[in-house]
Amino acid sequence: MPRSEEPEGDILGGLVTEQALLISRESEEPHVNALLESTFAIAFMGTPLTGSDLAAWGSVLKGLSRFLKKTSHQIVEVLKPGSEMLAYVQQSFHGMLQQRESRNLSAIRMFCFYEEIGVFGIGKIVEGPSAILPRYSSRGINANHMGMTKFASSQDAGYKAISDRLWIWADEIKESLGKNPVGLDTMRAKRTEKFETIFNSPSPQRI
């Protein structure tokens, strides 16, 4: 599947996920509160994770605001350098993780993927250091921000890296439930078969 240079609507998906978990934590509604307790792992894809340092947000927000200049005016306003709203979300999210750790609650697994190629005329939307969490594993994807989740085949290095991480978590969930893990090698074989079936069909589906 060719990598597009058009803006993607889910560029802020990681930040929305963080906010959703914060809302879940504070909610008194059981079905809303269950979202946080049911979250096992999160894979961040080029999400700005610089924390609460407002000065550090400058370069990140500058790139994002230029990238989104043709989208909602309200979004661009929030993304201006020095946005206290975004810094607050990060500060609250990191505080929530620390609180869960101090209370010996189940940790949320996290892995950060970051872009290795810049967008033509703009550069990298989120630089590597801004897209990682120091205490968690991370790795780059050889694509620009919009191409990080678009793959040409099952042999695409980015596809392998992301799907490997998801299958590792899937096996951890199985083990936590007392079920036998499938194993990464078996999962790799299955994913390749499924991928090739989809892309060889008359009407390929988007992965």
What does this structure look like?
The termini are close together. The chain is 45% helix and 8% strand. It is mainly α and 207 residues long. It has helices at 13-26, 30-37, 57-67, 73-78, 84-102, 157-176, 184-199; strands at 41-45, 109-115, 137-141. Mean pLDDT is 77; it is low at 1-10. Helix 1 crosses helix 5 (84-102).
Estimate what percentage of residues fall within beta strands: 5-15%
The first-to-last residue Cα distance is 9 Å
The assigned structural class equals mainly alpha
Run of helices and strands: HHEHHHEEHH
The mean pLDDT is 77
- Calculate Rg over CA atoms: 18 Å
Q: Biggest β-sheet, characterized?
A: 3 strands, parallel
Number of helices: 7
In spatial order, strands of the major sheet run 1-2-3
Residue share in helix: 40-55%
Given as residue ranges, the uncertain stretches (5+ residues, pLDDT < 50) are 1-10
Please state the overall shape, judged from the principal axes of the Cα atoms: flat
Produce the secondary structure layout.
Elements (H helix, E strand, L loop, with lengths): L12 H14 L3 H8 L3 E5 L11 H11 L5 H6 L5 H19 L6 E7 L21 E5 L15 H20 L7 H16 L8
Helix pairs in contact: 1-2, 1-5, 6-7
